[in-house]
Amino acid sequence: MARRGSYAKGIAKREEILRTALAVIAREGYHGASVKELAEAVGLSQAGLLHYFDSKDELFVEILRTRDEIDLADHAEAAGADLDDLRDGYLDIVRHNAQVPGLVELFTRLAADAADPEHPSRAFFAERSAGLRDRWAATIAEAQAAGRLRAGIDPVLAARLLQAVSDGAQMQLLVEPELDMAALIETLFDLLQPPGE
């Protein structure tokens, strides 16, 4: 029975680490969030912190996973059950991301690292991308069938465009902090509207 309690405590501590690290990176930025600083923020040594993760890279991947879980919980409509919900929820997340450049930097760095098949971020980004595309493509196809989005565009390609514009905008934001990422996404949605609307 003591083992179950220890296991539950370990899960709770891991969750505390991820939520605290998320806040530290959002506040201090990617470079301001060393493993040492993250460990201190949760009252652990560096070795104690890394006891909960296989590596620093896995820690950072899990921070992004936690960010996505929180974003989807806070903006459930972004999952895309309906076109208006998809658009509004997605724009809310994009606007929020503009306020946390440290997390945007972490995302773009790990996205680049995902090019390496051995990097821990590879599986995360592959799974994340496929999941977003599947959900968004289904919503786009339904909107096309209802005449709310331009017909003749493959819904999967349209979903990829949404993702590509968002990911590219995050990279641009790091160089041009004044960039209005939401305006880019809104423009893409407008371009997908049927002619005459």
Describe the structure.
The protein is built from nine helices and no strands. The protein is an all-alpha fold and 197 residues long. The protein is elongated, with a radius of gyration of 19 Å.
In percent, how helical is the residue content? over 70%
Name of the CATH architecture of the largest domain: Orthogonal Bundle
Number of helices: 9
Order of helices and strands: HHHHHHHHH
Compute the CA-based radius of gyration.
Answer: 19 Å
How many strand segments?
0
CATH superfamily of the largest domain: Tetracycline Repressor, domain 2
Shape: elongated
Low-confidence stretches: none
Mean pLDDT: 87
State the name of the first-level CATH class of the largest domain. Mainly Alpha
CATH topology of the largest domain: Tetracycline Repressor, domain 2
User: What is the straight-line distance between the termini?
Assistant: 64 Å
Strand content: under 5%
Largest sheet: none
Keywords summarizing the entry:
197 residues; 2 domains; 9 helices; Tet_transcr_reg_TetR-rel_C_sf; Tetracycline Repressor, domain 2; Arc Repressor Mutant, subunit A; 0% strand; transcription; single chain; mainly alpha; elongated
